[in-house]
Amino acid sequence: MTDDDFVMAVRGLFDDPAALLDALGREGAKGLAGWGTGLFARHDGQLSFRRLAGEPDAGATAFWRPASGGFRYEIGVAPRPRSLDVSWGEVSAYLASRATPVRYARLCSAVAAVREHDRAYVPSFVPFRTPEAWAEVSSRPWSRRASELQLAAACARDAIVPAAISHPALF
User: Fold this and answer.
1) 159: which residues sit within 8 A by CB, 6+ positions away?
2) CA 155, 160, 166, 167 torsion: positive or negative?
3) How many Å apart are CA 21 and CA 30, to the nearest integer?
4) Bond prior to 79 in cis (omega within 30° of 0)
5) Cβ–Cβ < 8 Å for 60, 72
6) What's the pTM value of the predicted model, to 2 decimals?
7) CA-CA distance, 52 to 73, in Å (whole number)?
8) For residues 24 and 106, is the Cβ–Cβ distance under 8 A?
9) Which tens digits make up the pLDDT trace of 54-100?
10) What sign does the CA torsion over 82, 86, 92, 93 have?
11) Is residue 53 helix, strand or coil?
12) Contact partners, residue 121, CB within 8 Å, separation at least 6
């Protein structure tokens, strides 16, 4: 395994900025272990993602499985898969080294803004003369703002758990 594998193993746990914020709110390795138990329980005991083009071992499938005191990260590459056991203590230390006060504050405010925007949405019938008027007055502005907030939250997450190989911005 390489240092890139470790970075990708930790980053893969936090595909959602809110999940990273929740994990950072836990106290030490024991708190993070409780968070990890819940994460694996929500995903039937296993996470998996395919590595993207430009990443090491592009196209290979990466698996996360719970292990004693942490998790096992496995890369399914030919001819022989490789694996890495990662402890919650290592994850906690890595996050503590990356989550500076400024980065943490930015993540908190970005996740709060996304949550507030989502909470303000009330699905209901709103009379508009045409579907185009509805899209122009309600749907597009709402979606545009949601995208802006989610992008800001993703950037705040990336500052704490960066990709092993940086990807170009979508916008």
Assistant:
1) 98, 103, 106, 107
2) negative
3) 16
4) yes
5) no
6) 0.83
7) 17
8) no
9) 788 888 899 999 999 999 999 988 778 889 999 999 999 999 999 99
10) negative
11) coil
12) 142
